[in-house]
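pls design
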């Protein structure tokens, strides 16, 4: 038997929530962190772009990279059980993480400063595709290797992805982009202590560079050359940390949670397959925002009883018919989703598949997170 999510949560050192856009990665990350901290594990949740209200509920400022301890009284004030170990939250600020990485790891103080001030650096650090994923990993590396205030568990939220591998491959893509052949070509004049502009106007200059310089101006290209030169000396560090993170992701105490919805169960299966084929441990597949079964719990168990109950309560026959029709539709949808989850269960080799019901409201506060947590852990 594969361990269930409760057993895994007692031993995992790192939980990574992955999945397509808008399926509940950020909310689930927070709910998982709360559960772990209630069990006495020192936990940090690193969120990416949380909705403003959720960030507020977690006590996070608008922009960040600041670790904030969540006050246990925020839970007790809502009548919720507080964490029994320190629980903190942090919002990934990509630009600041780039700055921290450059500041901490750049070997040359003067070139480091020029890099930080390069106009293209600012654009690159925030706009480059994959930058978010890469910086999430840099942050994960930093947090997991820190010696002061060590953490038992880091829960990592991730940006929306079309494929599970997007997240895993982004760091290497970025490093390669900064360190590829074209980059080296641009950098040659720096190594030869010539001016880049001279190189650009050399008869032998590439058609590509001549073409783009017509549109972008040589000043921009000079900035680009300087930007790439600025990164020289950092690549070994980039690669070493990327390798350390690769090992961390493959560790048997690192759990991936695949988030999706019942309607996107195929995508969930694809994420599961791509992670599993890399020998990464998927601890759970969550189909969030499932249609709640309207007949579950206290309500009347069959349509005829519901019809009678509505009329007894003073509803007109028309109203009763309409309510029963909608309720039946929901019940049918819920049954179809349970059946889909069952098929998925058969396909994911014993990985727990958890259906979490859609709530009437967004998950934007501790009470909403508590409902989500219950859906995940029972
Ligand atoms: N079970 C649920 N019931 C109701 N609303 C939910 C549920 N789970 C998540 N939500 C809401 O759905 C929206 C998306 O959730 P969330 O931000 O956690 O998803 P995400 O996967 O992180 O999204 P993104 O890919 O944009 O980062 C939010 O408004 C959240 O409050
Ligand atoms: Mg999110």
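designed seq:
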């Amino acid at each position: 038997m594969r361990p269930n999510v409760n057993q895994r949560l007692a031993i995992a050192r790192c939980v990574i929530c992955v999945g397509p856009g808008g399926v509940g990665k950020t909310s689930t990350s927070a709910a998982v962190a709360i559960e772990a901290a209630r069990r006495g594990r020192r936990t940090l949740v690193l969120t990416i772009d949380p909705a403003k209200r959720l960030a507020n509920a977690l006590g996070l400022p608008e922009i960040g990279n600041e670790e904030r301890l969540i006050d246990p009284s925020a839970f007790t004030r809502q009548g919720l059980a507080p964490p029994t170990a320190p629980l903190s939250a942090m919002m990934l600020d990509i630009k600041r993480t780039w700055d921290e990485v450059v500041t901490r790891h750049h070997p040359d103080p003067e070139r480091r400063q020029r890099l930080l001030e390069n106009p293209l650096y600012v654009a690159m650090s925030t706009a480059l595709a994959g930058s978010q994923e890469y910086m999430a990993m840099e942050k994960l590396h930093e947090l997991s290797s820190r010696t002061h205030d060590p953490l038992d568990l880091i829960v990592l939220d991730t940006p929306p992805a079309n494929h599970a591998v997007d997240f895993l491959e982004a760091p290497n893509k970025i490093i390669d982009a900064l360190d590829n052949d074209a980059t080296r070509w641009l950098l040659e004049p720096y190594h030869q202590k010539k001016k880049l502009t001279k190189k650009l106007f050399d008869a032998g200059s590439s058609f590509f560079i001549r073409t783009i310089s017509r549109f972008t101006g040589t000043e921009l290209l000079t900035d680009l050359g300087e930007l790439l030169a600025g990164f020289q000396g950092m690549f070994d560090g980039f690669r070493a940390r990327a390798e350390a993170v690769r090992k961390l992701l493959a560790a048997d105490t690192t759990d991936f949670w695949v988030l999706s919805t019942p309607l996107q169960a195929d995508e969930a299966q694809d994420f599961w397959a791509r992670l599993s084929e890399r020998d990464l441990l998927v601890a759970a597949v969550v189909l969030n925002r499932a249609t709640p079964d309207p007949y579950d719990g206290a309500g009347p168990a069959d349509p005829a009883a519901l019809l009678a109950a509505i009329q007894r309560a003073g509803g007109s026959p028309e109203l009763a018919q309409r309510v029963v029709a909608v309720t039946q539709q929901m019940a049918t949808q819920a049954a179809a989703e349970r059946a889909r989850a069952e098929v998925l269960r058969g396909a994911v080799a014993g990985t727990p598949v958890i259906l979490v019901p859609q709530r009437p409201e967004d998950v934007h506060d501790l009470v909403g997170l508590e409902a989500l947590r219950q859906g995940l852990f029972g």
